[in-house]
Amino acid sequence: CGVFGVVGVADASNFVALGLHALQHRGQEAGGIVSYDPTDGFQSARRFGYVRDNFTSQKIMETLPGELAIGHVRYSTSGNKGPTAIRDVQPFFGEFAMGGAAIAHNGNITNANALRRELIERGSIFQSSSDSECIIHLMARSLQRNIPERMEDALRRVEGAFSVVAMTRTKLIGVRDPLGVRPLVLGKVGDGWALSSETCALDIIGADFVREIEPGEMVVITDKGVESHFPFRRLEPRFCIFEHVYFSRPDSILGGRSVYETREAIGRELAKESPVEADLVCPVPDSGTPAAIGFSLQSGIPYAMGIIRNQYMGRTFIEPTEQIRNMGVRLKLNVNRALIKGKRVILVDDSVVRGTTSRKIKEMILDAGAKEVHFRIASPPTAWPCFYGVDTPQREKLLAATMSEEEMRDHLQVDSLKFISIDGLYRAVGETEGRNDECPQYCDACFTGDYPVRPADQIDKGFEM
Ligand code: 5GP
Ligand code: SF4
Ligand code: MG
Question: Cα(168)–Cα(347) distance, rounded to whole angstroms?
């Protein structure tokens, strides 16, 4: 998901709509905005579909007045799978002591089932099936004297990954979980402030990137400025390494590094680790593009757009059902036949999850008359599900959960298939010594099975680590 908030500028909701549009790659199912204005109070609009189709008309933006607003773009990783219900669309708003609050959450709460059971027993009335709603109920029940302290109280009970943007009648609040699994950044816009999942959304509203919110940090922003707290026990950070590989936009800055440059470096590492003789390096667009450029630069093999992406299709993986995903590949990608015929082709993609994309692409490339097909993948094999806000399927559906690299090559029937090593990936994100196995610098659980937060709900349901 993507979260965004603005305080201290006129018509804040317009800025939020723009910010959410720049974060659309983080969630395409639905979006919502909540605003606050002293005359109109809290106002909210939540819609299915793209930001550009919902939050551009004057008619709707007029209903969201004020100098304070937050928003969310949704990609379902918890709660009801399949079509999102409108009640599951964030931000969530709750009225309770001291005026209430609205929250937008990116990540996944790993003890949400247990919390929800407990809260319901004690009388909370849930409106949605989303894990994030627990935060509002915990806040409503807290006995603290002000909303930021209630939020600290609430979040100390929550386990897992959370980057939260929240608002009261006067404050914009941003928090990251102690490991800092999901991103969150602070920007300055005119006399006001912005919080965003990624820097690319600050650019779109002309805000200056100030800094990242630190893991475990809470910032409370009012017209007086930014106050910072550290309400949790300090832990060694474990940022999601897959944000660098796939999830974030290439024009964002993560941990002081351009995502684009990191991806290009991954491609270079791949070319060093697993070279192969071929005529062309082609990305599987768009997610494989920077890595393919890196591979080409390192190997000297020409880069070419052998697969053309239909710009009117979104991210296929994020479509929740198998059927749509299957069709999705063909709706989205087409082979540039004239270029491919008779060639030995290296295809670079960011990841292999179920193998749907790679299988279809290989068929399409061979149909077009390629002589050889070599896959190079910009992440290690995805062998474990993510429980922290990226929607990987159950373990059984992951190709790498049951097959070795060679078995996957066989299954996909390609001439070669190589994944970047975990140390190669760490080098590409700037860890020159590779992964520190004693104290890993990132979350990489989907590749290693080393889960930095115990996925309690999943273990209750029988998941074995
Ligand atoms: P597959 O087709 O193997 O199931 O999925 C791999 C493709 O899904 C890649 O092309 C990758 O770009 C895309 N993808 C989109 N979203 C995600 C995600 O959340 N996780 C992973 N691992 N891959 C994703
Ligand atoms: Fe990121 Fe993978 Fe960790 Fe999920 S399991 S947070 S995708 S590194
Ligand atoms: Mg892709």
Answer: 49
Distance (Å) from CA 309 to ligand 1 centroid: 15
Q: Indicate whether this complex's ipTM tops 0.90.
A: yes
- The better pLDDT of the pair 77, 202 is held by 202
Residue nearest to atom 14 of ligand 1 (CA): 317
Share of the chain above pLDDT 90, in %: 87
How many angstroms separate the Cα of 254 from the Cα of each of 236, 243, 262?
A: 17, 9, 10
List 167's β-bridge partners, or say none: 102, 172
Note the pLDDT of residue 83.
58
Q: Which ligand has the nearest atom to the CA of 309?
A: 3
C-alpha 142/C-alpha 125 separation (Å) is 16
Find the length of the chain: 465
User: Where does ligand 1 bind, in terms of residues with CB under 6 Å?
Assistant: 246, 284, 287, 315, 317-318, 349-358, 382, 390-392
Q: H helices of 274-346, where? A: 289-299, 322-332, 337-340
Using CA atoms, how far apart are residues 132 and 162, in angstroms rounded to an integer? Answer: 9
**Strand pairing of 172-176 and 218-222?**
antiparallel
Per the annotation, the verdict on 200 as an active-site residue is: no
Q: Select the CATH number that applies to the domain covering 2-237 from these four: 3.60.20.10, 3.50.50.60, 3.20.20.210, 2.40.170.20.
A: 3.60.20.10
Residue 434 neighbours by CB under 8 Å, 6+ apart: 422, 423, 424, 426, 427
What's the fold here for domain 261-431?
Rossmann fold (3.40.50)
Query: For 329, which DSSP code?
Result: H
* pLDDT band at residue 330 under the 50/70/90 scheme: confident
Cα of 107 vs centre of ligand 2, distance in Å, is 10
Closest Cα to residue 61, out of 10, 8, 13? 13
Instruction: Using DSSP bridges, classify how beta strands 92-94 and 307-309 pair: parallel, antiparallel or unpaired.
Output: unpaired
